[in-house]
Input
Amino acid sequence: MTDASTETGLWLPHVTVATVVEKDGRFLMVEEDIHGQLILNQPAGHLNAGETLVDAAIRETLEETAWHVNIDHVIEISQWTSPNSGTHFVRACFAGSPLSHEPDRTLDEGIVRAIWMSRDEVAANTHRLRSPLVLHHIDHYIKGKRFPLELFSDYDA
Output
């Protein structure tokens, strides 16, 4: 393992969120520059201190796509280890619906653009996906895999 946390004897996975947002049969994706390669992902990112998983999903979607969304359901909680870095991720993936767009908003550093893609267009670009979870979560969404947000509790609230 290459996680820095293993140096202290603790193993701490990275907690991330992702949002599957569908509109008219197309999914909101981000194209990002990772070490000079254009990679595709859902709006996604790390959980920040003091925020809930739902809040993180809303924030990351806005920061990466300039879309305000409502988080409607949980699709899945997934674990995945990157074969490139050895980093282990625990990813909470949500289904969201688009509310409004801020076309003049500056996107996060590294994000080239937000793009709406069909499931088939995403599948045709599997070689460019940030992780196998991207298409996996779209497929689960299409199949109707959804759980209520009450699955999560925030005891700090």
Helices lie at 53-65, 119-123, 133-142. The chain has one domain: 13-149.
